[in-house]
Amino acid sequence: MKEMDWLFPKNSFKMNKKVELLAPAGNLEKLKMAILYGADAVYLGGKKFGLRSYGGNFSIQEMQAGVEFAHSRGKKVYVTVNIFAHNDDLDDLPDYLRSLEQLTVDGILISDPGIFAIARQTIPNVPLHISTQANSTNWAAVNAWASMGAQRVVLARELSLKETKAIRNKTDVELEMFVHGAMCISYSGRCVMSNYMTGRDSNRGACAQACRWKYSLVEEKRPGEYYPIEEDSRGSYIFNSKDMCLLPYLDSVIESGVNSLKIEGRMKSVYYVAGVVKAYREAIDTYYQKPNLWHTLQEKWRSDLGKISHRKYTTGFLFGTPGADSHVYDTSAYTQTADFVGVVLDYNSRTGFATIEQRNNMKTGQQIEVFQPNMPSYYQQIGKMIDEDGEIIETAPHPQQIIKMQMEHPVEPYSILRRDII
Asked: Which residues form a coiled coil (predicted)?
């Protein structure tokens, strides 16, 4: 190879496969929900070496169960090993990598060049993906990683659609990009606010989300005098970004040539995972199978995403650098239009009763939506409920209480019961 030839590859990449939908899995229940509601692959973290120390995460035994569940359904599992490692982080790394290889995971996400080099040497047959934390913002960086053996590069969130297309035109490696979820005020998540204010290292998995706190301005020689930023006298959430939502522009994103569409949220609820995955699953399938319905279904998908806990939505960097309207200045609270009240564990077609695990207080007479992995959703009133002692009850107030509920139509296991917020 001539010197620097790797910088200028002849692009032979062709989008001959349907784009992958990649979902977060903070624990085994979320993994199952993501796959059942339509994800092609999930990404998860172990108990160490990942950037979500407080996200539940998987033991090796749980990871094995997750891989078996996914592979039995033809789906993939990627594992995050994407901390920026210090010397003492490396001692147990080779053994951990070999354990992931034995589990037959489908890929490992890495951001640290040292970890990448150790992984290449220790588990040369496992596909390596470059995490968004590596800040890949140009085609030369993407090709550099590819030349070292990376199979996929997760693009930085700070790229526009135009830039993404330009990278695709100059690269053969697989490309992955975020399409939905929380945005970080810091460059591709490379934050030091948490370290400075709490001593928790955001680049080693312990972020305190200091960017979501309330701030006011203090002048150096006037301690104790707090000057509001904007008009809220209580302070302002000046670092509090809106959440990304690219679903309305998914057709353009797919046509840019990326291979995988990634949803953020390993620390979010099973309800969040199921709801977001299904909306994006429907949108992707519609793009490929029924493009004439693409614009017709936009309002439904927006409504579905509104029922899930979220901050106001933004397109992030898709059309250029975000402006002031990409942040929320008056609150760091989430909003949603429906409450998650239960999940279906089983359904008896003979009696018409479903076994439900309660997730929020519910009572007879309330109107609920039955949100299902594969079958259409439907609304019904809560009718007859029976507790574990066989007693008829009018309310289910206890967290994760197991009850039986009469259903108006057949229902799938893992279906979600939700109640509109009035």
From this structure: none
333: left (phi over 0), alpha (psi -120 to 50) or beta: beta
> Which amino acid, 91?
D
Answer yes or no: do 295 and 264 share one domain.
yes
Cα–Cα–Cα angle for 57, 284, 71, rounded to 5 degrees: 45
pLDDT tens for 239-271 read 556 788 999 999 999 999 999 999 998 888 899
CA distance 113 to 90: 12
Are both 295 and 364 inside the same structural domain? no
Indicate the helix (H) or strand (E) that contains 381.
strand 378-381
Is the distance from CB of 175 to CB of 142 less than 8 angstroms? yes
Token digits for 35?
């796959």
CB under 8 A, 24+ apart: contacts of 40-43: 40/75, 40/76, 41/70, 41/75, 41/76, 41/77, 41/78, 41/106, 41/260, 42/66, 42/70, 42/75, 42/76, 42/77, 42/78, 43/77, 43/78, 43/79, 43/80, 43/109, 43/262, 43/266
* Total residues found in the chain within this entry: 422
Q: Three-state SS for 107?
A: strand
Is the pLDDT confidence value at 238 over 90? no
Residues 167 and 301 both lie in one domain: yes
Number of domains forming the structure of the chain: 2
**Lowest-confidence segment of 71-75, 156-160, 298-302 by average pLDDT:** 156-160
pTM: 0.84
CA angle 100, 101, 106 (to 5 degrees): 85
Do residues 264 and 383 share a domain? no
CA 413 to chain centre: 23
CB contact set of 357 (below 8 Å; sequence gap of 6+): 342, 343, 345, 400, 401, 402
